[in-house]
Amino acid sequence: ILQWNIRGFFSNLPELQHLITVYNPSVICLQETYFSDQKGHDLKGFTSYFKNRNSLYPNGGLAIYVDNTIHSTAINLSTNLEAVAINVHMPTKICICNLYISSKYNLTLEDLNKLLQQLPRPFLLLGDFNCRISNFGEPDSRGKVLDTFLEHSDITLLNTSEPTHYDTRTNSFSNIDLTICSARQAAQYAWKILDQLLGSDHFPIVISKENSGSKPSTVTRWKIKTANWNQFATEVASGIHTLRDPNSFQVSEINSIVNDFVSLVNRVATDTVGKTKSGRYHRKLVPWWNDECKNAIAASKKAFNKYKRHPNEDNRMMFKKSRSHARNVLNESKLKSWQKFVTSISSQTPISVIWDKVRKIKGIYNHHQITALQDSQNNSTLSDSAKIGNRLAETFCKASSDDNYNYQFLSLREDLISYIPTQDHNSSYINNKITLWELQHVLNNSKNSSPGPDEIPNMFIKNLPPNAINYILQIFNFIWSKHCFPSLWQHATVVPVLKPNKNKLDPNNYRPISLTCTMCKLIEKIINHRLRWFLENSNFFSKYQFGFRKNRSTVDHLIHCSSDIYKTFENKQDALAISLDIEKAYDMVWRPRILNILLSTGVNGNMYMFIKNFLKKRSIRVRANGVLSDVYQIENGVPQGSVISVTLFLVAINDILKQIQNPVKGYLFADDLTILCAGKNLSLTSRVVQSTLNQIEEWALTNGFKFSPHKSQKMVFSKRKNPPPHISIFLNGSEIPTVNRLKILGLIFDRKLSWIPYLKTLKQNSLFKLNIIKCLSHSTWGSDAKTLLNLYQALIRSRLDYGCILYSLAKPLHLKMLDPIHNTGLRWTLGAFPTSPVTSILSETGEWSLDYRRNLLICRYAIKVSSISDHPAGEIIFSSRSSIPGRHILNILASSGTTIPPNLLKKAFDTPPWVRNSVQCDLKLKIFKKDSVPSSAFQQLFREAIIKYQGFTHIYTDASKSHDAVGIGLFSNKSSYSYKLPHIYSIFTGELIAILKAFQLVETSDNQRYIIMTDSLSSIQAIQDRFSDNPLVQKIQILNSTLFRSGKLIKLMWIPSHMDIDGNERADKLAKLSLQNCQSPQLTIKTPSDLLIQNKKFWLDNWNRNWTNLQNNKLKQIKTENRPFISTASTLSRKEATVITRLRIGHTRLTHSYLLMGLDQPTCTSCEDPKTIEHLLVKCPKYTAARKKYKIFLTALQDLTTHPPSTVIAFLKEIDIYNDINSFWPYITKFYL
Question: Which residue range or ranges hold the RNase H type-1 domain (predicted)?
């Protein structure tokens, strides 16, 4: 515990932060904080308790800060004394009372006794008592009162004889800061004075308790960043030979097989990767602490000790100077450290570092330590980590216990026996052997995450040698085909995380984060890909289930809900909407139900048995404070933290929508169910909805689900002037509450769908996040504009984008409330002056206005829907009876000149990706860099590579693009072909179509072996991805499989372009000639990606046309089209980039601050012309000599772009206006007097 009369919180904050770093206190008690009114200041990572004075000037005041990892509660005191008290668990419960008694307060024994009676035992009463007691000399009048108080038999004074206060006026020491505790606990505490005053005249006091155990231990982690991966791979490769031979695997040995491999990897990793040391949790050093701070504090301490030994005036003045110097050093170091970090953030800074700093700015710290927990069974407090873990494990298991089921379902469950397959059916393609390609695919797409019970992170497996990867594949196929499952994979390590703003003592307020074995996650991903494809291809899922499905999103759910409501308004009806909440949805899924549904759907054999084994005998261990709990079994539900669990849950809940019949409509996003019903008679509508809810209740009863009526909500949508009458809808015997605003998947629906409440909420939330950009965007030492723009796009623009397809239906006046958010964020990103025109800011950042961006996103959504066969949103947008949202989308799409062609290539899902024969690719020449190898050498390398393809028919493909068209050329041994595409197509599409044409040529040819050569590496990489959504790639892959089955062998080879390789040069020439040849066949293949490019180009051209027609804009004088200037400015320092940006825009503090201050426009002191950037840089004769010196010859402002920024900056410094462009007050006198 740190006790200190800080004499001003803000003035001594750096010293306090240093003390926190060094002594790592669990509780901080401060007196004389000088906070004003009832507002305090939070310390990040601490819970705060305040008592401030209501006075005109800040004085007095108390604060207690408790580490967030420790549970604490406030104690309400009834006293005239200035005191604040809390109960804190460290880990045993103790009361801490912080007290400040002003020297002007008339202290009485009654005040102290009354306070003591309110403090629960044991307690610590500490603070600044402002009195002298007899223990340390002659007592004063207030000290005598305290002496009498200390005569209580159950309290003890912890102070030693060391003084706690130094009076600079009288040069004397005193013991006015006291620490009093319960007598029984006195022997447990150590009381220590820190012999340095820092910025206060009171010494800090540290009160420690032996073996308190209040600070939990940390968990060891792998040192991934310093790992020796080469040595790791080498040792694992040699160790694989010591493991069991895959040919001798036995089902009974599956646990040993997996455990032996895990042990090998962990043993090698211990030597080559290493782990961090375990120990007590400790706060990290403050980043601004350096040797200069250390030396300044040491000098201040030395001066004070010298003054104590020799208390003369010289030593006193030396001490005061050194203390003042130390304070200045700390404040300056803190400021410079922040500036240095912000300045260092650039586009090359790892994104993890940036987000870590952003989280710290927001006050988000990842603390998972739990020091105390309430045991409701015997009304006691648990402090032992093992007991805490067991109590949490019991709570988590209770969420999936059979006790949560309705007694009626429990009685029905006995009759709902799961089907048992009579035999294995492995004929289905979903039961095929797992391939190496599938394993590599999921491994390459796996992100680094915390390891589970096997302690193997993904990074370990990614760095395994080929023989180890093959060993994993053999384990997977053995498990897959022999229907066994390792017990280690059925187990999860659970990390409890406290829910926001919840009581730390209540175990029900913790959310379980499950960590499962990495190897199990890999095979789950493979199986999940197969199961998802099978279910989607067999149309198992309801078309109105939008959750966690490919090509489905929350927007699909929201547009259906809003479309129904708008139709209701058009028909002059009311709509009753209900948002239903399922209690413990994932935890209470009845597992046999999942298996029954899968069997009835045709899932059997390996797939069925894997899922069945996966769901059996699930168990968890909770890790609390680095200690693992006992093992607890999970009775029901799908395993949390597992990849395939979401799919299994969707299987279990899918048929709920079958209970909803017209006129009621239901839309599902995972477990979020929204039902709507429209009608002119609200009473009749409510009866229809109630009937539907009764059916849903019956479904839930027979399937083990339970809806929560109190968390569900209902709302009536109506255009009536007066609110609709109250209606009662019941669920499980309780009425569903009525709300005026219904929140569905993050969007707020109001009664008339004006979207105003959502827009206001969105603006408020965005303003809060905008503060992060403000912190990092100082115009002198802020981060570079490119990084700030990335942060803005991730933090704020993404929020503005979400739901804009719907809220864009709001009135234009209401939509404008979001424009200041967008414009301010971009202005701070650039460092532009506040008076800068919005059009200039948008042009410099390359960001569109929100109106243009909404239009672009709406068109993107329409094109996406059109590219997917039978997409449910298609009936809203493209139907002849579309609703207001559909017509709104179509109108914007039509205004962009984009039409959906009837022959648009759609995404195909006919052939399973793992069944398709992979296109064999030769990338041997890719290892050589074109820049470092001459063309003659590349030609030789090509000749050597092509030797092994003797007997193959050679086909060369290429594509070329001009402003008018895209040309395609094919050249083979005997013939050549050329085609033309419209200019809207990308070169990537052209290269893919060229390869597709080559495959089609193979289809009609008689030879059996072919090699197709292309210089498009991106096309080859796309074709290698069997899960690609690109329709052209899918057509190539399917055609390749068809040709392979017919006995034809096709190889795809990458060759470098423009290296005088004869076939490639001929194909390139054919592609370019087709651009000029009007007779070249025109292809009409259209893909969604090309429509997106065409649509984006329209909006970009429209934006540029508006820029061209813009009048009276200074930036337009030097910029003819909207291109971001950020990429160029990123090479400059933040201040230099800001200066150049302000010069380009033409608005600076020097020339436009008069607008902010309400003054007249300033004039040039030498020629009386209005002071503008153009005048200063081009026209003013005063600076002619400086222009000649730096060879800046400008006839107009647009000539500024021809000079390097460094030259312009040097010129500005020469004429002494460089700092005036950024600074504000210093130049006012200079230019206005």
Answer: 949-1076
